[in-house]
Amino acid sequence: MKRNVFVSAAASVVLLTAAPMATAATASADSARTAPTSTAARADVSAEQAIAAALKDYPGVVESLDRDGNIWHVDVITKDGKGHAELEVDAATGKVSRENVDTDENPGEHKGLLAAKITAAQAAKAAVAAHPGTTWTVEWDSDDDSGKTPYWHVEVKGSDGKTWNASVDPTTGKVTAQTDSDSDSDSDSDSDSGDNS
């Protein structure tokens, strides 16, 4: 009988001592599971990360990148100039989805882009170095009608909320400021293309 009392007492001590440790271990495991989720929800995919994700999904050369809310729109041209993909990259998760893929592009139309020494990612980096902020748009501009040589057009949003527009030389990476405005680039282009009748 004494032996049963000692065994029961010993079992009670083990249970009383182990219960708080098990509860602490469970609480620690629960907090470890929720911590990465809350951190991941706050993460924001940068322009450079969106470009990398798009090129991993559809290898080639980025022609344009534009942020619209929580989505990066990325246009990629294959290195032979014959393929073109319109991709969307989720700015919260980095997940890439293909919206449209064409395989019958005219390679001659993309000759300047494919020959450019400065990539879209490098143009974005150069613009942010010249004017600190966040890259919002990178676009290859080769409008032959303007008489200008091709260049990268980059929009950088500063911490003050204003948008800074820059031209980046596709050969040297030299940045030239165009304008500093607080309006959306879409409204700027709309006002420039007004009806002249």
Explain what you see:
There is one protein chain. 39% of the residues lie in helices and 29% in strands. The protein has five helices and eight strands. Strand 3 (84-90) and strand 4 form a beta hairpin. The termini are far apart. Mean pLDDT is 78; it is low at 1-42 and 183-197.
Strand portion? 25-35%
Number of helices: 5
The shape, in one word, is globular
Structural class: alpha+beta
Low-confidence parts lasting 5 or more residues at pLDDT below 50? 1-42, 183-197
Radius of gyration: 27 Å
> How would you state the average pLDDT, rounded?
78
Reading side by side through the largest sheet, how are the strands ordered? Answer: 4-3-2-1-5-6-7-8
What is the tally of beta strands? 8
Oligomeric organization of the protein chains: single chain
Largest sheet: 8 strands, antiparallel
**Order of helices and strands, N to C?**
HHEEEEHHEEEEH
Helix content: 25-40%
Key words describing this protein structure:
disordered C terminus; 5 helices; 197 residues; disordered N terminus; eight-stranded antiparallel β-sheet; globular; alpha+beta
Brief digest:
This protein is of the alpha+beta class and 197 residues long. It has helices at residues 2-42, 47-57, 111-115, 120-130, 185-192; strands at 61-68, 71-77, 84-90, 96-102, 134-141, 151-157, 163-168, 175-181. The chain has an eight-stranded antiparallel sheet, with helices on one face.
